[in-house]
Design brief:
Number of strands: 20
Strand content: 15-25%
Structural class: alpha/beta
Low-confidence stretches: 1-20, 496-531
Largest sheet: 8 strands, parallel
C-alpha cells in the first residue's frame, strides 16, 4: 500500500468514531429498574428454594437469567435496567459477613465476575436490552477493594502498589477528608481505600472504564460510594467513560449532596435528601410532615444544577424496604406517584412492586423468584405511570419542565409539571372526611382525566380541583383529556405497556459519521484506482 493510501486509511479511521454515549439529556426521560443479578432470576434447573437472605450467600442469578426474564421489566414500561457490579469479586472462604453475592466486594476491577457469566453473556444482555430500545446501567466501584485484613496482599488487585492506596485509618464521619481517604468496612472485612489522587490510579481507572463501556456498549454508570472519592476524580473518570454518571451520595444533607452534581463533579446523584423528605411526609407510622417535601423541592431547585436529572427512589439495597417502614400500602402508591411525576429519573428496586418487606442488609436483598413475578396492584401502578411518563417524555417538554408546588396541606401535596397535576396524600387507606383543595392554571369546566382510574375530573371555578378521600387516600394524576390522544391510556390509541413496547427515543448506538469522514471515504475510493 502506498504512503498516500495508508494516510487516507489512517485519517478515515480517525474520523469515524462510533458514538456509544447516552447523554444526560437522553437519560432524563428514562425510568430505571434496579436489580441485584444474583437475586433477580434463576437459570433453568436451579433450586428455587435455597435462598434465605439471612445466609448472605450465592443464590445463582446470572446475566443470562436476567436476559431471559426481561419481559417482566419491559412490560412494566421501564426503559433502562441498572445491574449490580460486573467486576471480579473476592473469591476466598466465606467471611463472617457472608459471600459477595451482591457484587460490591471488588478484587480485580479489570476482570469480570465469573459467578455471573462470561464476557459474551454480558454482551448478549447488553445487545438484548438495546434491541428492546432499553439502556444498560452498570454499577461501578472505584473507591475501594475488599480484603480480609488491614495488610492485604496487593498482588491480587488491579492496582498492586502500596502508594496506590490510602493508609489504613478509621473514618471520622465529621471530617470530609477522612471520609474520602480512610477505609470503609471494619477490621473483619476491611475495604482498602484507593488513592484516587494518584496519577497512576486515575490513568488506570480511566483506561479501564473507557474500555469497559466500549466493549459492552454500556449506556450509564451508577457510582458506588461517590462521596468517599475526591470530587476532582469524577470529571476525568466520567469524561473517559463518555456516558451518564449518577453517584451514590449517602445522606440527607442537601448542601453536601449538591456539591456532587455539575461539570466539576457528576451528571447526577441518587436523591437521598428527597428520599428522607418522603419518609417524613408519607410513612405510617411517622411524622406525616408534608412540608418536608415542599421545602425539599424548593431547596433542590435552588441548590442543584439540574433537579430533573436526579435519581428518585424509595428503596434500594442500602435502605429498608418501604413496607418495612410503612404499614399502609397507599403510602407506597403515593410516594411512587411523586417519584414518577415530579422532577428526576424514577428508579424502582426489584421486588418493590411485589411488596417485599425486608429490613436492612441482607434482608432487603431477597430472591425475586418466590414472588412468581406476579401482576400485583403495585406492578400495575408502575406500568401505568411508566406508560404515561413515556408518553409525556416523547411528545412534550414535560421532562425538562420544572415541578411547581400548587398546594401543601397536612394531608398531602399537589404539584404541577408541564400540563400534569399530581395530588399525593398521606392519610392512608381508611376513608376520611377530608379534602385537599388545589388551585390549578386551568379554566373552569376544563375536562381532566385521572390516568390511574380514567375518571373524568371537571375543573371548578377559579381553576379549583377538590380532592376528596371518602374512598381512602388514593393518589391522583390529572391530565387534560384532550391531550391524551395517542397515549394508549383511558381508551386512547397508542403504545401500551405490552411486550411490543419499544422506546421512541433515538437509537443510542449509532455511528456518528462526520463530513470529514465522508470526504476521506471518497478520497480512499479514488485512490484505490491507482493502487
Amino acid at each position: 500500500m502506498s504512503r498516500v493510501a495508508f494516510l487516507a486509511v489512517a485519517l478515515l479511521a480517525f474520523a469515524l468514531p462510533l458514538a456509544y454515549a447516552a447523554t444526560a439529556d437522553q437519560w432524563r426521560g428514562r425510568s430505571i429498574y434496579q436489580v441485584i443479578i444474583d437475586r433477580y432470576a434463576l437459570p433453568g434447573g436451579a433450586d428455587p428454594n435455597q435462598c434465605p437472605p439471612g445466609t448472605r450467600t450465592w443464590c445463582g442469578g446470572t446475566w443470562n437469567s436476567l436476559r431471559q426474564n426481561l419481559d417482566y421489566i419491559q412490560n412494566a414500561g421501564f426503559t433502562a435496567v441498572w445491574i449490580s457490579p460486573v467486576s471480579q469479586n473476592y473469591e476466598g472462604p466465606t467471611t463472617p459477613y457472608g459471600d459477595p453475592y451482591h457484587g460490591y466486594w471488588i478484587a480485580d476491577a479489570s476482570k469480570l465476575n465469573s459467578r455471573f457469566g462470561t464476557s459474551n453473556d454480558l454482551k448478549n444482555l447488553s445487545d438484548e436490552l438495546h434491541r428492546r430500545g432499553m439502556y444498560l446501567m452498570v454499577d461501578i466501584v472505584v473507591n475501594d477493594v475488599m480484603a480480609t485484613s488491614i495488610t492485604p496482599d496487593l498482588s491480587t488487585y488491579m492496582f498492586k502498589e502500596q502508594s496506590q492506596y490510602h493508609p489504613y485509618c478509621v473514618i471520622d464521619w465529621s471530617n470530609a477528608t477522612s471520609e474520602e481517604q480512610c477505609w470503609l468496612g471494619d477490621t473483619v472485612v476491611p475495604l482498602p481505600d484507593l488513592n484516587t489522587e494518584d496519577p497512576t490510579v486515575v490513568a488506570g481507572f480511566s483506561d479501564w472504564i473507557q474500555s469497559l463501556v466500549k466493549e459492552y456498549n454500556i449506556d450509564g454508570l451508577r457510582i458506588d460510594a461517590a462521596k468517599h472519592v475526591n470530587i476532582g476524580f469524577w470529571p476525568v473518570f466520567c469524561g473517559n467513560a463518555g456516558v451518564f454518571c449518577i453517584g451514590e451520595v449517602f445522606g440527607s444533607d442537601i448542601d453536601d449532596a449538591a456539591l456532587y452534581q455539575g461539570p466539576n463533579a457528576l451528571d447526577s446523584i441518587l436523591n437521598y435528601p428527597m428520599y428522607t423528605a418522603l419518609l417524613d411526609a408519607f410513612t405510617i407510622p411517622g411524622s406525616l410532615n408534608t412540608s418536608a417535601v415542599t421545602d425539599m423541592i424548593a431547596q433542590e431547585a435552588a441548590k442543584f444544577k439540574d433537579p430533573t436529572l436526579l435519581g428518585n427512589f424509595i428503596e434500594n439495597q442500602d435502605v429498608p424496604r418501604w413496607a418495612n417502614i410503612s404499614v399502609d400500602p397507599q403510602t407506597l402508591y403515593n410516594a411512587m406517584v411523586f417519584n414518577f411525576m415530579t422532577d428526576g429519573i424514577p428508579i424502582v428496586y426489584y421486588g418493590q412492586e411485589q411488596g417485599f418487606s425486608g429490613n436492612s442488609d441482607p434482608y432487603n436483598r431477597e430472591a425475586m423468584w418466590p414472588s412468581k413475578y406476579t401482576n400485583t396492584t403495585t406492578y400495575q401502578l408502575m406500568t401505568t405511570l411508566n406508560q404515561f411518563r413515556n408518553f409525556l417524555v416523547n411528545n412534550t417538554q414535560w421532562a425538562t419542565t420544572p415541578t411547581q408546588v400548587l398546594t401543601t396541606s397536612p394531608y398531602g401535596i399537589a404539584t404541577l409539571k408541564g400540563d400534569c397535576v399530581s395530588i399525593m396524600t398521606n392519610i392512608g387507606s381508611p376513608p376520611q372526611n377530608i379534602s385537599i383543595p388545589v388551585y390549578t392554571p386551568y379554566l373552569a369546566s376544563t375536562s381532566l382525566t385521572n390516568i390511574l382510574t380514567c375518571q373524568q375530573w371537571p375543573v371548578g371555578s377559579n381553576g379549583t380541583i377538590d380532592a376528596q378521600y371518602s374512598l381512602g387516600g388514593v393518589p391522583l394524576v390529572l391530565y387534560p383529556t384532550a391531550l391524551l390522544q395517542n397515549s394508549g391510556l383511558c381508551g386512547n390509541s397508542g403504545t401500551t405497556g405490552s411486550t411490543n413496547y419499544v422506546s421512541s427515543a433515538p437509537p443510542i448506538h449509532r455511528p456518528v459519521i462526520s463530513l470529514l469522514a465522508v470526504l476521506f471515504s471518497l478520497l480512499l475510493g479514488s485512490l484505490s484506482c491507482f493502487l
